[in-house]
Specification:
single chain; 431 residues; alpha+beta; four-stranded antiparallel β-sheet; 11 helices
């Protein structure tokens, strides 16, 4: 659906709805007012005559006198729309105060109160009849012609229809004008964005804002594409197998910490380590077993694969016996430069125990740092040690989860491999 047809379909029902509502209000209000006016006119004529004859002893005789009859007819001559006026008395012929053709008032029943009703003749003509009690069983019947009201309302109906048609044409014209204006502005936006014109002469502020927003979005998209291409090109230039192995090793061996009761085990790779470096841990019936080491292989990729497989085999063990069988099979599957194991129980971890695969100096610095920072859980202790000492190697600390000398005095530092803090030289502190 085009913009032009959409706007026309939206504007025409609005204009037509307004026209129909206003026309209906005008039509029904005008008809109600004219109908009420005619009813009041019929009642006024009938009530006037009824009150006039109410006190007469023999109104048929009195009103038949030439003088009164002539005076009454002269008065009724000034009443517009009256078709007939009759006085009806029990057991007497209706007295025609103003004779009517084609109307027999004798068929009307005496009313208990004032009453009016509308009727339609055999030829389609319309009438309003008023019946008013006149005392002693008598009543007055007056009939007025309602055809002028009907004709007037037909004219009003035609006017409402014509007004609706005019408004429909007006709505169509306005819709076409607005749609053409918006379409022209959107076409100008498209040409401007396509670079076919420098000055398209936009006059609608929203259209200009839309053009600016679209240009900004296009520029941002082009800049994002260019940046992605540059980053991809840079990574392609800098990427090498060694870097890929290091990234995969960091993803597979993220810092590890687990707690069982009051014991906590923390393990991580720190600094520059061989591709075959690994750590693993498994719970047993009496406590658990922590394993760290370095696999040896012909290529870094094979060493990383061996380290990953070793960790999988150890951590899939379900008990001490299963773990012992796995250790018996490991030398047959892979070659190891270093393979250290520590079996712990909750009683053996009253003091932190450090496992390290590194050089002697670094190992001593790490152990000294642990001795000089008592009360810190193994996880935060190992994380802070990596930041403070910048060691290279594989490390594991097994110890109590908190301080055992009067409360948790240590701070939960929570460093990991993503910490951006720079290492601090604390040789004097550790020695």
């Amino acid at each position: 659906m085009t913009i032009r047809s959409t706007i026309i379909l939206l504007t025409m029902p609005l204009f037509l709805g307004l026209a129909l509502v206003n026309g209906a209000l005008l039509y029904f209000q005008d008809r109600s007012e004219m109908q009420q006016a005619l009813n009041d006119q019929a009642l006024a004529a009938a009530v006037t005559v009824a009150e006039f004859v109410r006190e007469m002893h023999n109104p048929h005789t009195d009103l038949a006198r030439p003088v009164r009859k002539k005076a009454l007819q002269a008065a009724l001559h000034h009443v517009s729309g009256i078709d007939g006026l009759y006085l009806l008395s029990p057991h007497e012929t209706p007295l025609a105060l103003k004779a009517s053709h084609g109307w027999d008032p004798a068929t009307s029943r005496a009313p208990a109160t004032l009453r009016t009703f509308a009727s339609v003749g055999e030829k389609g003509d319309r009438w309003v009849t008023a019946l008013v009690p006149a005392g002693q069983g008598r009543f007055v019947a007056a009939r007025f012609n309602a055809q002028p009201i009907h004709d007037h309302m037909q004219a009003v109906y035609r006017d409402v229809f014509l007004i609706g048609m005019v408004l429909a044409l007006l709505a169509t014209g306005l819709g076409l004008f607005v749609a053409r204006r918006i379409t022209r502005e959107l076409d100008a936006n498209r040409r401007q964005l396509a670079g076919h014109a420098d000055d398209t002469g936009l006059h609608i502020r929203e259209a200009q804002n839309l053009a600016d927003a679209l240009r900004l979005m296009r520029a941002s998209h082009e800049a994002a594409d260019a940046r992605r291409n540059l980053v991809a090109a840079r990574k392609a230039r800098l990427r090498d197998p060694q870097q890929a192995v290091a990234e995969m090793q960091a993803a597979l061996f993220t810092p590890f910490a687990v707690r069982k009761g009051q014991c906590e085990i923390a393990m991580r790779l720190c600094g520059e380590v061989p591709a075959g470096a690994f750590f693993a841990h498994v719970f047993t019936e009496t406590g658990g077993t922590a394993v760290i080491g370095i696999c040896r292989a012909d290529t870094p990729v094979d060493a990383l694969a061996a380290a990953t497989d070793t960790r999988r085999l150890i951590e899939h063990c379900t008990g001490a016996a299963d773990l012992q069988r796995a250790f018996g099979r490991l030398p047959m599957l892979h070659a190891y430069d270093v393979l250290e194991r520590f079996d712990w129980t909750c009683e053996s971890t009253a003091e932190p125990h450090v496992l390290a695969v590194t050089d002697e100096a670094t190992s001593e610095r790490v152990r000294s740092y642990c001795r000089n920072t008592p009360g810190i859980a193994p996880g935060p202790l190992l994380a802070s040690g990596e930041v403070m000492l910048s060691p290279d190697g594989v490390f594991a600390i097994i110890g109590p989860a908190g301080s055992h000398d009067g409360g948790d005095r240590g701070l939960d530092i929570g460093f990991d491999s993503k910490d951006g803090a720079k290492p601090t030289d604390i040789k004097h502190f550790t020695h």
